[in-house]
Amino acid sequence: MEKEIIVLIGGPSSGKTTLINALTNKGYICYPEVSREIIKKAQNDGIEQLFLEQPLLFSELLLEGRINQYKQAKKESTEIVFIDRGLPDVIAYMNYVGNSYPDAFHKACLENKYSRVFVLPPWEEIYISDKERYESYEEAVLIHTHLEKTYNEYGYQLIEVPKDSVDNRVAFLMDKITK
Q1: Which residue has the higher pLDDT, 1 or 39?
Q2: Are the beta carbons of 120 and 170 closer than 8 angstroms?
Q3: Which of 10, 52, 87, 178 sits at a 20 to 30 Å CA gap from 136?
Q4: Is the model's pLDDT at 122 over the cut of 90?
Q5: What confidence tens digit (pLDDT) does each residue in 10-63 have?
Q6: Is residue 110 a contact partner of residue 61, using CB atoms and an 8 Å limit?
Q7: Beta carbons within 10 angstroms of residue 174's beta carbon
Q8: Bridge-partner residues for 114, per DSSP?
Q9: What pLDDT is attached to residue 137?
């Protein structure tokens, strides 16, 4: 079996982190969302929402972190690696806020391709906001639309993960991966 680098995408509070944590608990190699680290560091430096105040800087840091995750995932000894959000997410968010970005963003998405992309749809019943997640549910739905559009533009066939229990979502992923 060739190495599978699988990315989980979806708008804010769609269950990605919970699913990544469940996969980690089952022994899979999983990489967490990079943006929370960047946001927390910026907040410690006195910038409440780096993405809102300096979207290009935030996105450059995010792109760098996600490229590093991808490269590290390629080196893992396991056959399957899961990543919470991928490189095209950066472009989707920049398009969402209407900002331009350097061609290097596009190039990074073309050079670092994922094996599969699972998309978690907006789920209002589990939606919560916190210090790092400032978007409303309605904004999360719009972001989800931008994510799907962007990944489709890069040629990915998105596999939608049903709204279900965490265990059933894990089982769904494993069923799709082993087929």
Answers
A1: 39
A2: no
A3: 87
A4: no
A5: 988 788 989 999 999 999 999 999 987 888 888 888 887 777 788 888 899 999
A6: no
A7: 14
A8: none
A9: 75
Beta bridge partners of 118: 8, 159
Where residue 144 falls among pLDDT bands split at 50, 70, 90?
A: very high
User: 10: left (phi > 0), else alpha (psi -120 to 50), else beta?
Assistant: left
In our burial notation (b when 16+ CB lie closer than 10 A, e otherwise), range 143-161 reads: bbebbbebbeebebeeeeb
Which tokens is 50 given?
């780096």
- The two three-digit tokens of residue 141, written as one number: 């739905």
Q: Which two tokens stand for residue 91?
A: 């472009």
Residue count (the chain): 179
Residue 73's SS3 state is helix
Burial of 123 (0-12, 13-18, 19+ CB in 10 A): middle
DSSP string, 42-58: HHHTT-S-HHHH-HHHH
In the chain, the largest separation of any two C-alpha atoms, in whole Å, equals 48
The whole-model pTM stands at 0.91
